[in-house]
Design goal:
Helices cover 5% and strands 40% of the residues. It is mainly β. It has a four-stranded antiparallel β-sheet, with no helix packed on it. β2 and β3 form a beta hairpin. The longest helix is centred in the middle third of the chain and has 8 residues. The protein is globular and about 50 Å long. It starts with 10 loop residues before the first strand and ends in an 18-residue tail after the last helix.
């Protein structure tokens, strides 16, 4: 008789839980169906950052198939330190905190990379998506910046490119709109890219579609159900393992 090793398909959710003690660190939750979740590690943080602001928010997990590694990137921010949101927006850390792992169990020590442009007040909600055309990752985040022609700061999406999450190209503006924009996430599907972002002025989620990751490639899609959800942010988009949803 041949003994086979069972395989498991599930979903791992990396997140933080709030501004309480240790709330701004990395927590893991697991789901078998993508709808119902169980906290791992007895509900305690799995990863801690002692770098920079000594906290992390908005963690995002991405897999690099070519080097068989996972990278976890997060905002270097700790509101619980008492500096407040005004400081975070206008003079917050310009760093991203990064971990790597080959198995989602054993993790490296974190390292920090300065991605925020000069004068940026924050580097919020960094995410990454693999670009098959250029064979590298596009990393993107929100920063509050004020350019010479502007009367006040405005949240825009910036980006940089990397192959190894250690060396990055120069950061550049990726998305700018009339309104503030934060919390962009990108989902590749069927040869296209779907880009979800929060309009921080109207407080809802907007959707775009592009045939590449080039910043000029995207057009707006009408998504009445999403647009009707007011006061939401941090969209998380993923495909179910067992069906086309």
């Amino acid at each position: 008789m041949t003994k086979t090793t069972p395989t498991y398909d599930g979903y791992l959710f990396v997140h933080f839980i709030g501004e309480q003690l240790d709330g701004e660190q990395v927590y893991f939750s697991y789901s078998e169906d993508g709808l119902h979740w169980k906290d791992l590690n007895d509900g305690s943080p799995v990863l801690f950052s002692g770098l920079g602001e000594k906290g992390v928010r908005d963690p995002f997990l991405v897999r690099s198939v070519k080097d068989n590694k996972f990278y976890l990137i997060a905002t270097d921010l700790r509101i619980a330190s008492g500096k407040g949101w005004t400081h975070a927006v206008n003079a917050g850390s310009r760093d991203v905190i990064i971990w790597e792992s080959s198995n989602l169990v054993n993790w490296s020590s974190p390292w920090n990379v300065t991605l925020g442009v000069e004068g940026a007040g924050c580097v919020w909600a960094p995410e990454a998506v693999y670009d098959e055309i250029t064979d590298e990752f596009l990393v993107f985040w929100a920063s509050a910046t004020q350019e010479s022609q502007e009367q006040e700061r405005k949240q825009k999406i910036y980006s940089a490119r990397t192959k190894d999450f250690r060396s990055f190209s120069a950061s550049e503006k990726y998305i700018e709109r009339d309104n503030h924009i934060i919390d962009t996430t990108i989902l590749p599907a069927d040869g296209s890219y779907y880009r979800y972002s929060k309009d921080e002025t109207t407080k809802n989620i907007r959707v775009e579609k592009g045939d590449s990751l080039d910043k000029e490639a995207f057009v707006t899609l009408q998504a009445p159900v999403l647009e009707a959800l007011a006061g939401v942010e941090g969209p998380q988009i993923f495909k179910f393992n067992d069906r086309e949803e």
